[in-house]
Amino acid sequence: MALRFFNTYSRQVEEFQPRDAKEVDIYTCGPTVYSRAHIGNFRAYIFEDLLQRHLEARGFKVHRVMNITDVDDKTIRGARESKVPLPEFTRQFKTAFFQDAEKLRIKRADEYPAATGQKYIDRMISMISALISKGLAYQADDKSVYYRINKFPNYGKLAHFNLDELQSTGRVKHDEYDKEHIGDFALWKAWDQDDGDVKWDSPWGPGRPGWHIECSAMATALLGDQIDIHCGGVDNIFPHHEAEIAQSEGVTGKKFVNYWLHCAHLLVDGQKMAKSLGNFYTVPDVVGKGYTGRELRYALMRVHYRTQLNFTWDGMKEARESLGRIDDWVERLREITEKENSQRPTPNVQRSTEDSEFEKALDDDLNISAALGFLFETIRETNRAMDEKKLDANTAAAWLTWWNRINDTLDFEAGDTELPEEVKKLAHDRTQARLAKDFQKSDELRDQLNALGWEARDTKDGQKITRRAGAK
Ligand code: AMP
Ligand code: ZN
């Protein structure tokens, strides 16, 4: 079955046809580094990670760019309020973003352009000049440059506004505005006192770019005039992505993006998780409650990206339990495989290695719920076979091979890096005790690990630490 995605532009599920049979270009709007990203932002990045990994599982080479918005209204305000230069202010949040993304096992993009990079600023200026020369932009009395939206006939098509009813209310200088305040939006913002020393020279005087032109410039600089897939959260559809289309297509005259994919919001108590509402958690907040990045990854990934997901601590517990079931299953399969005592025929081998329902579900607009449904159904069936001692080593090995393959997409497998510091230390001491043949100490350390809810098992590959069944 061919890959299919829901394209926001057409509001339809469409068969995916990349421009190149082997390589797919993806542009993803990255963090605005004015504070630490919250886990709602990371829901968007995890959906993009799943998209990239599934495309790779289907044999594509993915070229992904994620920008860093390090100059805009919010970053400038933050730097001013903190009384530090803009680059110093944003640096801490850039670093935190990469730390959190790593904790959540999000694959790194190929490039992370920052809006303040001089070559991107130069490109923004040249794009704005091109828009002016085509009559699509103009400098207003306030010295800022604005996009003339009624000169771009497709304006509003991504957000599905009724173009006849679209009334411009004049001009908007802010990066963010709603449907009721549609107007000519700012491409270049003339310097004012609030900007402090944040300014660049331009043909229109000193100033700084608007948020929207930043993405058009970075995307086309690194991926070319046309892109296969562009992603973000649904709040990016308008005005940000609408503006990106108007700017990029206004300059190049070519279709900017073939597939627009947007993920629904992460909610808290039924409301969007947002900085402005103060109802957010960061990755360290969740880790501080004793959860691992892997568990948060699971909790943010398990629901279809176009369905809103309510964040709850019960949801985190469920994530822990589900991963525990996967861990136990993988461990049991490994034990059987390691024993290699099979003489029985191998009835499930074919089924486990062929293209499974898991991949087919992801082909269908990344239907992760169905894919995980198939995984847990498989776990139930194979566990039953193992309980009845009917699963031989070859079959277990085939399921492990399948697991390794789908785990390249999910990245859910337990790893030592996920262990809390205290557990890591006890595990390390126990390894040392065993090397020194101090088995009494090794047993004591095992008891201490048990008391904390962890199991230490000695396998031919060394000590393995897993959560004890039922441990909270
Ligand atoms: P920002 O740093 O505000 O530009 O947002 C970065 C990304 O996170 C964008 O793609 C947003 O659409 C997305 N985003 C923001 N809040 C949420 C949320 N509560 N749930 C899912 N995605 C979000
Ligand atoms: Zn963007």
Features:
5-stranded mixed sheet; binds adenosine monophosphate; Rossmann fold; 45% helix; alpha/beta; 472 residues; 3 domains; Isoleucyl-tRNA Synthetase, Domain 1; binds zinc ion
Strand count, sense and barrel status of the largest sheet are: 5 strands, mixed
Number of strands: 16
- Mean pLDDT, rounded to whole units? 92
The low-confidence runs, each spanning 5 or more residues with pLDDT under 50, are: 342-352
Structural class by SSE content: alpha/beta
How far apart are the termini?
41 Å
CATH class membership of the largest domain:
Alpha Beta
What is the CATH architecture assignment of the largest domain? 3-Layer(aba) Sandwich
The dominant shape is elongated
Supply the CATH superfamily name of the largest domain: HUPs
**Percent of sequence in beta strands:** 15-25%
Give the names of the bound compounds: adenosine monophosphate, zinc ion
CA radius of gyration is: 26 Å
The CATH topology annotation of the largest domain reads as Rossmann fold
Helix content: 40-55%
| Domain module tally | 3
Number of helices: 15
